[in-house]
Predict the structure.
Amino acid sequence: MKSPEPRRHPAPSFLNYLPVPLAFGTSGLRGLVKDITDLETYINVKAALRYLLSISDISARSTVVIAGDLRPSTDRIMRACAQAIVDAGFRVENAGKIPTPALISRAISAGRAGVMVSGSHIPFDRNGIKINKSVGEVLKQDEAGITREVERMRVEEYSRTAATSAFDASGMLKRTPDLPPLDPAAQETYVRRYLTSFARGGLSGLRVLVYQHSAVGRDILPRILRDLGAEVVTAGRSETFVPIDTENITDEQLDRLEELAVAAEANGGPLHAILSTDGDSDRPLVTTVLPTDEVRPGGRRVRFLPGDLLGIVVAEYLRADGAAVPISANDAVERRMGEHGILLAKTKIGSPYVVSALDDLRRPGTLSRIVGWEANGGFLTGSDIALTAGTLVALPTRDATLPILANLFAAAEQRVGLAALWSRLPARFGRAGLLDNVPVAVSQAILAHLIPPGDVIEVEFDNTGRVFDRSRPGATSAALAEPATRDWQPCRLTLMRFFTPALGFDDIMRINVLDGVRIYFRNGDVAHIRPSGNAPQLRIYANSDSQARADQIVELALREPDGILRQLERAFT
């Protein structure tokens, strides 16, 4: 179900600008910093807490945990959040600057709501607010109720005058509140989560580099790694915000990692890995460092493993029996889970959908080690999982630390390097990329021309012109009735106008429209077009039997000015 769009209201008399309402993306509220005024923050946070109170998720006068990332705008937004919490009748626990999963872990363990101020991986001129319930993430079914409360709160605040409003003409608080003193409980709870479940000393003999940049977990991750036995080198610390999108790691970023590796090795010997996270440290970045004699001429010494493949290693290390991943994940996930007999659910893109799928997998009571992950590498656990040193308590939200540790421990316990460990994965390669500054209306217009009406999610085409419904994995495919067939065949022909044999594309065999348009070609190539859920971006995901071809598909889609995505834009908008 699509989240309701916020309604536009006339600007209240005391403001000298037209407010821009925040909207839900794939996970949380996102917007430009200039639009996330204190007033807009206050309205959304206070309304969300009213909603949580109305569904008995939290009780009156309880405590709400607040935290943020290292963006320059975060401190100001956190203070506005704190004012909203207090005015809603709750107390504030200031967890400081910590990873999003650390905040949510603390909130769940203490039975409290949480507010995380972070724009995750998006540029510093944007930010976001992520509310969580006392039991975990706000889900898509909660968004309509929150939006209704926001509308009520907006009317209430907009009805005030310049004298009675707590906000000035620019939408900022007239009196800026101070945050309560820092409470380290959330950070320490998060650190103990790993030190009490993974074996102390299990990473002895490993030398790793943590690329710190502006990640909020840049000091926490090295601490955990050292306590588990690794030798840790830190580098690249930045006081300027650096947006790291683990679904779109660029050649320039890989070059930067290689520079850091060369410098670190010159001062202390070989590295086994370079590790990092995105801005709010819920998505991992993991690369291995190859010995110089294993590097092909002109090749890189650093090898990056995309998050969807990284997650396969984690699922196997945790001995999962049920898993959920978004439809955008590399199809190697489906192959490997099938080989191990792991029940796999495919979801729309966004952690709330994965969390809901974890709930669905857990409900029958037949599975005991339930996990999920996203193409960005953020890993979720839907059940408590016993490890060598203790029990890893369920944390149904994206986390970067778990996939980093599980990959390192898996390699260490098998006495192989990460490169050797990863070489055992199915030989399917992926690449993702995006066009920035593509208005949402443009992306939606493109999809409207590529997706037929109706509730069929996936179809398969045969050589006789028939179209089969493959919407339910494991169920017998049924041929579509004539009207639906007439809808899907033109969709296929339209896509073939852009994904042509001249560009190396084979016949289209399957199309999935669960989230965007995912196209499966006869030769095994996969191309997936989807608008971002939290930024004005149009994304392309590709899978193939070679990295070169996956890279080429993305290049063909993004090429300026005549790539596939630009052609679609010109044709349908």
The chain has 16 helices and 26 strands.
